[in-house]
Amino acid sequence: MTATSPVSSSKNTVTKEFLSIWPYVAAAALVLIVLAGIVAPFFQQKLLSQDLRVTEGVPVSSQPFELKPTAIGALRIDAVAKIPTNRWVTYELQVLDPSNQVITSAIKNAWSESGTWREGGESGTWSESDLKAGLDVQARKQEQIKVAIEVLEYTNTAGNEINEAVPIKLTVNNGAIDGRYLWTGFFGVGAMALITFVSVPNAGKLIINKRMLDSDVGDRAVMGGPDKLLRVNIHVKADETCPSSLRAYIYLKDSYGEQLYASQGTTINMARSKDDDGSIESGSGRLTQFFTISKRGSYGFYVEIMPDASVDSTRLEIKEGASTTGAVQVTQILV
């Protein structure tokens, strides 16, 4: 009995059916983080701005203010010690409720130093400081609170105690968003978005990976079926006689070896490398096309590169279950 090959037809369609949404989800999250950074200052409400002078061992309290729960951000308390250079001060911030119970606290070792340097006949000055302390408080209920500041130690860089009041600028904002977390989210989500966009072309199961030192290459595998996108990559290497472009002809055969599809030829633009004299040394090119086959089975994909005189090698790579980042032209093989 003679086997009869199935009748097939093909059509080209541009579709987004196989588009992967994850790169766009990551990109949307990145945009939301940027927007959050832009609009965050508009949600802040300044509750207090006060200059305090604090002597060692004598706590000083701010004016009371109202703490309210907010949908976005938290209560942000910033304190900046305004000390001369080459001094150190250790101070404590305390957030107190109406009964003077400590809600939260933090200790800051603030310092300001400067000096001169000499190296290789050159000299100059330097200065460094770390004077700012901060607390973020998430409100659970509305209540009157205040901030107490106590200087625990105030010395110069030699360790000698200084008996002076320390000027400290205290500011309190409600609904503040810590920019450090936004930057962390920005770079983290940005990296995720980049990885997802880069990974989409590599998605899918590799079912054919065949290389030949010739202009013709082909192989057979089980493939096809509903919703199975095939990404066909053709890699061409050529010698010094490489033209600016070649043409790739793709053929599909069924399990009986009967031809189901033959392309009209697609141009591959060749990137040609040159030596110092401007002479062409070699060329390389790549072509990517997408296919679907309506019925799953054993099929052979074959590629022929023309003209073939300059071709050193041809590699055929096919991935099944591929996805895309946008609309692509897909050749549908209807078996």
Order of helices and strands: EHEEEEEEEEEEHEEEEEEEEEEE
* Mean pLDDT over all positions: 89
Any idea how many domains? 2
- CATH arch. level architecture of the largest domain: Sandwich
Count of helical regions: 2
Oligomeric state of the chains present here = single chain
**Alpha-carbon distance between the termini?**
22 Å
Secondary-structure content class: mainly beta
Helix content: 10-25%
- Specify the overall morphology: elongated
Task: Summarize the structure in words.
The chain has 335 residues and is mainly beta. The protein has two domains: 9-19 and 203-334, Sandwich (Jelly Rolls), CATH 2.60.120; 27-185, Jelly Rolls (Sandwich). 13% of the residues lie in helices and 55% in strands. The chain has two helices and 22 strands. The chain has helices at 22-43, 179-199; strands at 9-15, 45-54, 60-61, 65-67, 74-81, 87-96, 102-119, 122-130, 132-137, 143-156, 166-176, 205-212, 216-223, 230-238, 245-253, 259-262, 266-269, 271-274, 280-293, 297-306, 311-320, 328-334. A hairpin with a 2-residue loop joins strand 7 and strand 8 (122-130). Helix 1 (22-43) runs antiparallel to helix 2 (179-199). The protein is elongated. The two termini are 22 Å apart.
